[in-house]
């Protein structure tokens, strides 16, 4: 559904210096999947979205939506293809002087849809996002979550095949975030949407995404289905998807980090730890269920003199082990 091939975007500064924002991005998001794009500030996330919506022309490479290559299209055809992409923004950007219904109707009005058709479509969309009774409310009368629901309804007005969400929950509290993410998944299931979420919050990825890509300085550092990525023990995404609480170091003891999931079941890890004997202490641990797969990380401490033997015994049982730097 969404295909990026060797996508590259280079900007030139006033001093004629090249700044590479995207450097050979290859990415394929299948139809009906919720895919997360994560990365630190400056990783290229915003540039990627602008290239996906053809607001920026790539320096090279191609962007295709449902088999249609956007790069190189004429302005008229590009406008038509853009209607197949709905955008949900971090700050919603509703028109304050218009009601919720009028905000949802706006893109339909611009597209030349008749008043009667607009009214029917707007009523359907507001009902779909759980705001069937708030069509006459102005943005100032809505909560943050309700405003985002209006933004989602507006993004769906032209019946897009793809929904691009740029930090859709970063301005919301945790309860409202879960509600919005649940709504996005429900809409994906009901409408058959393909969803791309740009976010810096790994909790969003854990909650709603089927797959994820980590961008680092304009390149794909890691990508894949959630359960598969979480099973790449020791990787940046695996550590972020299954975070551990901090714990104080203990003098004379060394911390070892163990991981399970991705072919290593939890019971095997726990049995291997128990077999090390009474000198082992559990420092911290966490378990997550991602895309239906249980994955986790466990930190144990052992006497400094027993690090080598403990590590060897655990690895012999197929357990992923890393020594944690003090």
Automatic annotation (TrEMBL):
Stored SMART domains:
AAA
What molecular functions are annotated in GO for this chain? Answer: ATP binding
| Occurrences of domain ABC transporter (ranges) | 2-242
Q: Per UniProt, which keywords does this protein have?
A: Amino-acid transport, ATP-binding, Cell membrane, Membrane, Nucleotide-binding, Translocase, Transport
Q: Mind telling me what this protein is named?
A: ATP-binding cassette domain-containing protein
